[in-house]
Amino acid sequence: MEVIVQTDADRAAYLTALLIADKIRNKPDLVLGLATGRTMEQVYAHLARFHKRDGLDFSLCRTFNLDEYVGVPPESAASYRYYMNQHLFSRVNIDPRNTNLPDGMATNLKAACQQYESRIRACGGIDLQLLGIGTAGHIGFNEPLSAMQSRTRDKSLTRATLEQNAPMFGGNPDLVPRRALTMGVGTILEARHLILVATGAQKSEIIAKAVEGPITAMVSASAIQFHADCKVIVDEIAAAGLQGRDYYRWIYENEPDWDPYRALMSAYKPTA
Ligand code: F6R
Fold first, then answer.
1. What is the DSSP letter of 201?
2. Measuring from atom 3 of ligand 1, which residue has the nearest CA?
3. What distance in Å separates the CA atoms of residue 80 and residue 170, rounded to the nearest whole number?
4. Are strands 67-69 and 179-182 parallel, antiparallel or unpaired?
5. To test the ligand 1 pocket, which listed residue (16, 40, 88, 188) has its Cβ within 8 A of the most ligand atoms?
6. pLDDT of residue 272
7. Among 70, 128, 129, 163, fewest CB within 10 Å belongs to which?
8. Are 41 and 72 in contact (CB under 8 A)?
9. Atom of ligand 1 nearest to the CA of 203
10. H helix count then E strand count, the chain
11. Are strands 62-65 and 128-131 parallel, antiparallel or unpaired?
12. Which residue's alpha carbon is nearest to atom 8 within ligand 1?
């Protein structure tokens, strides 16, 4: 695992978008695993800018989102399909037929989850999976005690998640759907590369547990420690609880692989 600390949330999002853009340029038919949430909004805004400004081409990309609420139709502003259309799909040249989210409206949820896994396999597996982290340590909607080998399935959401996601439901946690379909921890670990992004004070405690704490099903995100190619990109505030942050900074400053990115990051000027 590599932990990259950036000064602020926008720079963390920009670096993440640069890494994704390079993967797409190297493999135009990339199978990209996507996440929703506030952290990703800035990442998608940068990707949309790369498309508009530099012609970053999504036309052959296939995408699989981590999760979707059960019982929220795709046209509802609270659905993750709606979020993805709004923040990314409508802003780049992706073919909508190549975009996939678990079907939370299916009458047979179990069969829908199995089909989702089959579709991922039929595409040759996920090349790069983007992850956020919940305050209780979830990746996707893998709430505490999710099995490390779990596959796409439906999960009941914890109180912490209902509270975290309440802003999309008028601020009322009781209006957040109680269940969601999510890729499993096992599904996520099969992706060839992982990038987990976390920003803000709210994430500092859980990021320290996930990255430096024991691997435990109580913190699903700690499963990333098993993965052979995982980057964790955080801002200074989210990095505050990391014991090894000076070492992580040193690696970023000195590893030749990061040279091109350091150059791009120094030239970066945030738009208004
Ligand atoms: C959503 C997802 C979740 C979020 C996490 C962080 O698709 O996968 O794991 O990434 O809850 O959400 P934000 O970014 O809103 O703090």
1. G
2. 140
3. 16
4. antiparallel
5. 40
6. 60
7. 163
8. no
9. 16
10. 9, 10
11. unpaired
12. 140
